[in-house]
Design brief:
about 90 residues, alpha/beta, about 25% strand, globular
Amino acid sequence: MKKILVACGTAIATSTVVAKKLEDMLKARGLDVRIDQCKASEVPSKAAAYDLVVSTTEVDGTAGKPIVRTLSFLTGIGIDADVEKIVGLLS
């Protein structure tokens, strides 16, 4: 199981939308994932426990973990390309 940390400014609405869409799209591809949410300010203390960080805002301190910064899960523009990138990073 791959673990993804989804970060946004407050870890309420935006990260919830992104996490749900991302989970649905990855599971539809047969990937077993666990997705957790956090505030952008919490990424430095949490990133080490995850395989990938997905963020809707600028974040620092990802403990060397790959990061995908995107708004595509909110706008729909470029979402397929971002999912492909995420799948590639999880492989």
